[in-house]
Amino acid sequence: MFNNLDRVKDISLHNLVVGAEEAASWIQHGMTLGLSGFTRAGDAKAVPFALVERAANESFKVNIFTGASLGSDIDKLLSEAGIVHKRLPFQADATMRKHINTGDHLFVDQHLSHTAELIRSGVLPIIDFAIVEAVSITADGMIIPTTSVGNSTTFVSQAKNIIIEINVAQSEMLEGLHDIYEPADPGSRLPIPLSKVEDRIGQIGIPFDASKVRGIVFTNNLDSPSPIVPPDEETEEMAQHLIGFLRHEVSNGRLTNKLAPIQAGIGSVANAVLGGMINSEFEDLQVYSEVLQDSVFELIDAGKVNFASACSITLSQEMMDKVYGNLEEYRDKLVLRPQEITNHPEIIRRLGLISINTALEFDIYGNVNSTHVSGTRMMNGIGGSGDFARNSRIAIFVTKSIAKGGNISSIVPFVAHVDHTEHDVDVVVTEQGYADLRGLAPRERAELIINNCVHPMYKRQLQDYYEEALTRGGQTPHVLEKAFSFHTELAKNGTMLSKEKALI
Amino acid sequence: MFNNLDRVKDISLHNLVVGAEEAASWIQHGMTLGLSGFTRAGDAKAVPFALVERAANESFKVNIFTGASLGSDIDKLLSEAGIVHKRLPFQADATMRKHINTGDHLFVDQHLSHTAELIRSGVLPIIDFAIVEAVSITADGMIIPTTSVGNSTTFVSQAKNIIIEINVAQSEMLEGLHDIYEPADPGSRLPIPLSKVEDRIGQIGIPFDASKVRGIVFTNNLDSPSPIVPPDEETEEMAQHLIGFLRHEVSNGRLTNKLAPIQAGIGSVANAVLGGMINSEFEDLQVYSEVLQDSVFELIDAGKVNFASACSITLSQEMMDKVYGNLEEYRDKLVLRPQEITNHPEIIRRLGLISINTALEFDIYGNVNSTHVSGTRMMNGIGGSGDFARNSRIAIFVTKSIAKGGNISSIVPFVAHVDHTEHDVDVVVTEQGYADLRGLAPRERAELIINNCVHPMYKRQLQDYYEEALTRGGQTPHVLEKAFSFHTELAKNGTMLSKEKALI
């Protein structure tokens, strides 16, 4: 076995060590579980697996609350086992997605900064079991998380029972990387004392009530690596347009070459766009984000980024080996915080972030759909994009202008689901170009977006829509009966392209 | 004349006193003006009037930036004079609305907390003239505002030129009521040190660079009174449902009878709903809002509210006489702040506000339209509703379930414009009842909204839509080709009610 009692430095807890099956057996139908894990990093692994095994012979359902998406196929296995009642606040698994879209799971798509508040205030069900991964438990009673913090601080502080998974595959050198801070309840809450990206405001571990610890389980499995999607021609063009926009800001005196702290969402597009900064003139950069992907470490290695704050680290296998194999080189440039702090409006506004997130589609007035394919089918969830977009200095959304070989235009007359309103979206970027929407009225925005961002094959079709809309008038002209025509055509004919308009 | 040089305590400024016509003559075509004024309170009056007069013989256009809506028909007169190029961040005038909806004015509908940031960062055009109403100028160089603060602090700090309108109709007793604080630029910005509703964190007046003052104009006109719309049966029912919801929160231990600091939007519905608390068991209440209407003073008089913070005071003639005639009685219970502070996400989240705002319409999944009639025609603007809804402890939206004698249902399948997404809306209230959407998946929300909030005459029609949508599936089921059918039916037939479904 890989039990290593040295990792549990509070020896009074040694008698709580159990196997994952036993721990899983305590969980009953109707309970709510708070699992560690954020973007495939730092997820509790052993007890969820054991719970899935139990489901082979037993029928029960539980609520699954996490930081964000889980790795190690846990969301997939939970879904297939049929034991998920309600899931929040985010997921990114193809199988779970199917169960969500049939209505089999109730999925609550939540701003990632909101979940902790809703748990503490008693709006969400009480957490029956917090199940959190750790590298160790300190002698003075703190849980040292692994590669993410997520909502674990709040799960541990609010749960009736705590199960700690000590993952011996993770280095004890992670101790000291985390900065744990939980705001007091409103009414007695003070300012969060963080005013620089690198500030440390809390403790190195999660404090806990030892009397609530039901079990300690040992595990020995690393996080799932992030799949590597190399940049392609379009993502490189998007990166260049984004850099062009930032350069324009610098030349207008609104930014310096140090830019402002950067947030970049999860996913290959944002990763590629961030990676595109390596060969730019920008320097002494800082990252204040929710997840650190490969590109941030490439920027650190290139001497472009001098500090990065986030809630989780999600890397490719190659980068994982490099970073965790040389943690001593990176640790003074990194801090991991609870998602409530990485995504907190107070901090985002104070630091004046530049936020870069991926859109599924946006419309001619700048509303963004981040979540729903064709307006109805959930992809992953809003994640932190709303936390950042609303409060950042510059809210940027990126997407390729077309998808499915051109059958889908990512720019439509009216997005079929709104996650970010026209009030919150500053700049949109495709491989065609960017549109800086700040300070523009809707009619100005429509012209700029159609001119700069739309793929040539859809330009005329969107122009025709907009011109017909103008005959109807209004602050935000629309032809409501045709507003979703791109989407309904796609459903009917397999393409948004109308035949007569395809000729450019 | 009503010039009263005693109001200008810095005597070095006495030689700058001019008439409004002269001050207006300095303004040139293409300039950007920053006018004081927020919800009909504290607006610069004389220079805008003189500018309108100039337009009788001269053709020019200017950008008009304000705190929010202006009183004294200024927005109407500016529109009629044809001198408005771009207007932001809010208006509420019927004539201006027409010019916006024909595309004659470019209207930028902005979160009220964002404008100051966008001016300071140089994203919006430089303010050529700040024109702000004041009760006086202090000997140590501060402008004491009148009945609103709005964006005046930032207009004054950022403008190339400043014109001060000393309104002698306003009592000098207003001095000491204001608390002026402007955040430093991001990068060197510290926490805003406000953690109680009644905290004072700044100065009693707006500091200014005397070398930028071009003129001082005397005026003698009070603010426009707010029209009195007495509560009706529906608003009283809405108030009772809202109180029922709050009572439920208290009985579940999530609030006490002191509730939490309350924000209530402008308008007769929010005013009536707030007024409904007078006969409730709630006590020791505090208000942290952007505007204080009659109901707040009624609650103060009734001993229910012990402190109120806002950015402006907008009252009926009767209440104006009472409050300004007895300011000594109220002044230790009031503070007026810049709208950047009243609406700041940092403060709203820290204080844990209960926010109550008016919706034009909401949909079966909880998305809210606050601004666009039939999705295209601007009503007033989003105002502060987004600042509050996104960050408050409980975001409540209220609206009557039907309008225009039943030809319009305020609950529709898909709102024709989204100002507040499903992620940001906690509770919706109509005279039919309330739906608490917190922690619910879209399908749960739809059932609750249709059951609790929809008018009986539209219930079957919405149920039919939802049932058809369920056959299509998805996280958020929709029949996209019928999603706006309520709106297109209204445009075609003058009613959203379909004939075959009207029979209940």
Automatic annotation (TrEMBL), chains A, B:
Is Transferase set as a keyword in this record? yes
Residues covered by the Acetyl-CoA hydrolase/transferase C-terminal domain = 322-465
Biological process (GO), any one: acetyl-CoA metabolic process
One Pfam family assigned to this protein is AcetylCoA_hyd_C
Q: Where does CoA bind?
A: G265, I266, G267, S268, V269, N380, G384, K404
**What domain of life does the UniProt record list for this protein's source?**
Bacteria
What Gene Ontology molecular-function terms does this entry list? Answer: acetate CoA-transferase activity; acetyl-CoA hydrolase activity
The protein's UniProt keywords, in alphabetical order, are: Transferase
Record carries keyword Magnesium: no
Q: Coiled-coil annotation: which residues? A: none
The residue ranges of the Acetyl-CoA hydrolase/transferase N-terminal domain are 16-201
Q: Which residues cross the membrane?
A: none
Where do the catalytic residues lie? E290 (5-glutamyl coenzyme a thioester intermediate)
**PANTHER family referenced in this protein's UniProt entry, alphabetically:** ACETYL-COA HYDROLASE
Q: Which family does it belong to?
A: Belongs to the acetyl-CoA hydrolase/transferase family.
Q: What is this protein called?
A: Succinyl-CoA:acetate CoA-transferase
Source organism: Psychrobacillus psychrotolerans
